[in-house]
Amino acid sequence: MSEVMSGIWALPVEHALFRGSFRLALLATTVLVPLFAAPASAQQDAFQAKLDAAVSALDRYPRFRGLTPEHRELIAEFMAGNTLFIALHELAHAVTSQMQLPALDRKEDAADAFAVVQLAKLAPALSDHVLEQAAKGWFVSDQRTQDNGNTVPYFDDHGIDRERAERIACLMVGAGAGKFPRLAAETKLPQERRDGCGAEYEAAAKTWDDALKARLRSPDQPKTKIDVVYGPADAKGKVEPIAQAFRAMGILEALAAQLSDTYVWPAPFTIEMESCGYPSAQWLPRVHQLGICYELAADFGEFYRTYGDRPSRSATQRPRTR
Length: 322
Ligand SMILES: [Zn+2]
Prior knowledge:
By secondary structure, the protein is an alpha/beta fold.
């Protein structure tokens, strides 16, 4: 672990989404209506090829070795969606301070909404499955808590699991505009809540659009440099397959491209995955870096392996989008 990443723990950690083992954060996923409406099959085919490479890499991770490719694909999608969500949630806090935006009410909810809005914009470069899996993470976590009674300190710090999960799922459902009926059903969103999800998403998106209006990049403005770095895996190489899977999927590169294309940032920054020895993700203001531990992604994968859908179930239920 580098000196830089070690700095995560020297900083206030109220926004570190995952600090203990198996700390699940919420995931949200979303999709803007116009983006979903656009035919994105070519992009999704391209993503599927990357996902396939990640699935191969994950066969070398001890906890996933021997699982069927279908099962590892579900795990990869869950890891991808949730890691993106956490990265964006942390980045939302950074955006607020770095761009000197007025503080938004209920900053944790605002950070979740930022993640959803940005994921929506990324939707064509990913797959619906990644987005859907990400939106279900909170519910999987809730189920786990009920199963074994373990508490999740992050959730304790950030409100009731189910309440936050419903809000994120509703934002996603609203953004998808009918794209995720199964998500709404599985997360048991009451019908009256579902009916208002479109408006809820629109309001959340508008809040962020208004806040960032002055930071939108015009075509003639240069793009801020946002590097994506994959640091070395730990000495024993345990998380190396995780690192390879993320390199293969290229989701952070897609995120960096979107962020530099859309906004004028006050300074270049880096999104870096690195081996930390523990699961975490956090914005490091001193070095302008969003640090994401491989262990966090691994935690998501292991969590899903234990508590998520099995391929026999999902294979019959989820439609392929490619
Ligand atoms: Zn936060």
